[in-house]
Hints:
This protein has about 350 residues and is α/β, with parallel strands linked by helices. Helices cover about 40% and strands about 15% of the residues. The strands form three sheets. The chain has a seven-stranded mixed beta sheet, sandwiched between helices. A four-stranded antiparallel beta sheet has the order 9-10-13-12, covered by helices on one side. The N and C termini lie far apart (about 50 Å).
Amino acid sequence: MLEARTAVRKLKEYHPPLGGRVGLRLDFNENTVGCSPRVLERLRGLQFEQLARYPERESVERQVATHLGIDPAGLLLTNGVDEAIHLICETYLQPGDEVLIVVPTFSMYEIYAAATGAQVITIPADAEFRYPTDAVLARVTPHTRLIAIASPNNPTGTVVPRTDLLRILRAAPDAAVLVDEAYFDFYGESLLAEVTNYPNLFVARTFSKAYGLAGLRIGVLAGTAAQMAMVRRVGSPYNVNAVALACLPEALADQKYVQRYVAEVRQGRERLEQELRSLKLRFWPSQANFVLVRIGERHDVFVQAMRERGILVRDRSRDPGCQGCVRISVGSNAQTESLIVALRDTVRTLSATGVPA
Length: 357
């Protein structure tokens, strides 16, 4: 009987709760107001010929490279950051290799790495979800082939200091070090300029968050030209669809729109954190477009109560170290005010039978 590979049969399954998402969607870290009007206008102007032929990404890659200030030969457009992770794993991992991941973090690092047959070594974050750089360095061996790092991290919103990232790059020259900067726009610090200095560095970005293009599935993977030539060998020449390629230049051109949204998210993040302090709810200061909050044993009741008030938030209590935690995305100023009204009412209501811890 035909069977999947052993590594595949043993994989953890990832099932995002996408069904029935009615209300203000603050559960998936998406852009909550949508993409630039210029993108919508471009969509309306698409002709049938553009959809009938295979997409060509090279010209758009050059535009993105110019926008980022890097060599086009070192850049690949991908089907979201998910594909970027997948391509790195397929390019550099094989059975017997070791992968280092600090948890909690984005689930797809482990899934894509384990699918190759590599051994995934998870290292718990330090107190306050700080990145345990010394512990990571202590686990680097001649078998280490990938170290995946999200900064800012999901679901915690914490970041890894630049000096620590450079220490890891220098300590593991034979390993691919993937720095996932999916939430870069809300943080502002990047390692992208270092790709020419470290042959083992790869930086991933996405246009799903600040740019509001999650439905088009488009991201960026950057590295040295020599390494990216290898990554391109395992990827499809038509991995990014024609609609995404047509719209991305318009999204890039409207930086005022993106900057305005990012500014509101940063203001909303600060506003939410202030409110959480006043409600005496435990949270971790974030550099992303969300905040992780510890609700306690009644986290599931809290999530449902917020849903009943028209606000969707994400239960992260199954993530390592996140027992009783809920992640709340941040949107526009008006949406943040709606969130705070619902949050106050939910906490007040639950207080009658036990305040969230």
